[in-house]
From TrEMBL:
PANTHER family: PROTEIN UNC-13 HOMOLOG. Residues 868-984 form the MHD2 domain. Pfam families: TPR_PATROL1. This is MHD1 domain-containing protein. It comes from the Eukaryota. Residues 657-799 form the MHD1 domain. InterPro entries: Munc13_1, Munc13_dom-2, PATROL1_C, unc-13_homologue.
Amino acid sequence: MEEENAVELLQRYRRDRRVLLNFILSGSLIKKVVMPPGAVSLDDVDLDQVSTDHVLNCAKKGGMLELSEAIRDYHDSTFFPATNDTGSTDEFFLVTDPESSGPPPRRAPPSLEVYTPSPIMPSLSKSQSLLSTQHQEPSVDDIDDFEDDDYNEEVDSFRVSRRSTNEASDLALSLPSFATGITDDNLHETAYEILLASAGAAGGLIVPLKEKKKDKKNRLIRKLARSKSDHVVSQSQHAPGLTGLLETMRVQLEISEAMDMRTRQGLLNALVGKAGKRMDTLLIPLELVCCISRTEFSDKKAYLRWQKRQLNMLEEGLINHPAVGFGESGRKASELRSLLMKIDESESLPSSSGELQRAECLRSLREIAIPLAERPVRGDLTGEVCHWADGYHLNVKLYEKLLFSVFDILDEGKLTEEVEEILELIKSTWKVLGITETIHYTCYAWVLFHQYVITGERGILEHAIEQMRKIPLKEQRGQQERLHLKNLSSKVEGVEGFEDLTFLLSFLRPIQKWADKQLGDYHLHFAENAATMEEIVTVAILARRLLLEEPELAIKFTVVTDEDQIESYISSSMKNAFSGILEAVETTADSTHEHPLASLAEETKKLLKKDSTVFMPILSQWDPRATAVSASLVHKLYGHKLKPFLDAVEHLTEDVVSVFPAADSLEQYVMALITSACEEEIVNEYCRRKLTPYQVESISGTLVLRWVNAQLGRMLGWVERATQQEHWEPISPQQRHGSSIVEVYRIVEETVDQFFALKVPMRPGELNSLFRGIDNAFQVYTNHITDMMVNKEDLVPPVPILTRYRKEIGIKAFVKKELFDPRLPDVRRSTQINVLTTPKLCVQLNTLHYAISQLNKLEDNIREQWARKRPRENFNIKKSVDENSKHTIQKDPFNGSRKDINAAIDGICEFTGRFASKVLLDGGSSPLFTRLNKFIEEDLEVLKEFFISGGDGLPRGTVENQVSHLRHVIKLLGCETRVLIDDLKSASSSEVQGNRSKLGADSQTLLRILCHRCDSEASQFLKKQYKIPKSAA
């Protein structure tokens, strides 16, 4: 394949060189052109042997050009490298710059014979090629043989594609080669002959007058020489009707005028004496060989090549690829081959004997070939059709060459303006070539698609898709066409040996394979031009649907639905793209400080982003879940690389901190894409079926928990140390709390900062563990403070004996219930209690208040950092894969420490409240209160404000709760004695029934208030009712 491309490219360059030289020499760029000896016009000069440098130098100088000198310079330059004559005479430099010439060619140049021509060649004939083995200067007699060089120029210059060969080598018809070695040039010429015969059958064949040689010019040269304004009106300059259309086809097929005139005259001569015979029912190659003589060619070699082509066509059409099988007449095939060989051999015999043998063989050939060609087939009658060019696959190759004429010869990425007329004219050959509607649309779609691959013109591709849509499906074809297509098959050598291919397989499978190859790596082929991807997918889908109708392929096809086909493209391209990323990451791994798996995750995420935004909207037209397929595949590919790393992880390391966040970020993006691509009700099911979670959060959570537990253990040690070093002195006059609580908060905040500095995925469980650890630390701190306070029962003295006002003999009071605590003070125990001083107790109280007031700020700070670390907590994406994510953050994480701190504060305040209550109710015989003692209420307000400290102390609500019962006692102290006595009497009877008095006090409280009342009425009541002794005071 590479050798064929190399030869094709070389031939293309040679042809373009000739065209450009002809344009320069025919125009006004050069003042005067002097022909070499023996040449009359440029048609007599072999432009392949003219030095372009010599011509360009003359054009620059505006002087006269001698072509003999240009030819001499060309041959001189073939033996020496291009040099300049500047600088030292001992040094030579190449004129071309090797560095700017691009990379070296990747294929070897075609082999050429080495020869040594004479240093000076005044003129070279077209028939005398530089590749020939014998070289001599032509004589005048030789020059006379070149009277008509239009044909010689055409046959000597290999017709090759003038298009770019980019990616075209991957697109070739699956058809066998011809045994006779027929070339594309031969097919072009024969196709044109068939077109002329078909036009002649409609009466449109006219032989134009032969113009003078000096006025003849190649149409391509005339186009190149025209101005822009001339090009606009060029179409109107053609002859009208069929004649002008045939002239356009001649130019499009690159047929010389001489060849055209000979063929037209030969076909007209073939009809002489055949009354009622249509031109398209002739056995054209045989008739042309019989009607065109050697004398009509100026060159014998050209005639021999022309005759050889006609004989080869007869052999291919009647023997190798016949439309009608030989059956029992198989022996005629050998007879035909023998006659064809004899005709070919007759040219090497002496003139008389050669002509005789040729005439006899042609007569015998006609007797055998015409009956064979006119046998009926496909429902026609004898003589209606001449079956010599409609045998498969010769007919489709000829038809393909005709279809290629629809492209503009100057811009092959565009269709010519006469495309509709050309197609109608080409359809006139259907009868000769055995073309049906299905064959036409299939061949035309192939031609257009092939042209798109070469030129890259999107308009051509859209036109090809339009033709593919017109190809009838199996049920849309007629019975006769179905049978005809079923019989069209050829044996082609493939990778697994020879295989039988149907017509649709031969034409559509190359298209599908090319499209599949492009789409199988769409990240590469459509990276810069995604606009045409939709059309290529359409081509692939249409080709597959048509090929699925072939029974042989329906079983072999693993891809049945459009969705399967799209998913196969995604799978193939994603794997190729991921492999490329993996290779790039491995290449740069040594030069970067990041772990390769982290880099791979980042690059994979970029790939997935581009895939989901550029390519998936296109592929989703055929597969709505294309995005989910792509994302799940990427998840799987990266997961294979990540798993060994996850299995080996045991501790939090730099690699873990680098890889885990990148892997988790990729997984989250994959989940987001799947959620957006699938219906909400099937997301969970799809994820369970298609995804194997990385479990990064689970593994990372285990590692984080180990770290948290270690940090909390150290934190508790620091808390213990801080409390042991605390002296319970205020930090400053403004900050009345102890220094230990500040140190504890510093330790906690450092631990929190370190926790959130871990750039690894975490679950709420790890945060809850941190909360519990901090809560436990504050509980330990609070318990240390409460442990330092003595038991309140040890500080409160025993309740003294109740006494009444006035001096009377003390007797023990007898009441209905026990009115006093019988315990006696334990002097020895009291001396052993280490009681904190009041200032230190106040510092403790302030410290506890500071601790609980800062807890809210700490909790808010932690929650804010968690929200920034895991914004996806607001979504339910992860829950479909990882059920562990269902754990939520605790609502009140510091509930335990808050309760302990509040209990400690309440305990300290309760001490004060109980002491004040003891003074008012159990103060012994000394305190005596009148009803108008205002100082008690004032003292209570002073005490309350002391604890509040203007907002710097305890909360006002806390203090108010503690002094509320004292306010009630003070209110009772202000009541009249008679009211208190009546209420006590009612309370005594009510308590038996479980009720309180009217004033809301119990009998014990009322009794003690009356005992401390400085009032005779109260004293008499207590003496009479309760036998309470008088006070010693």
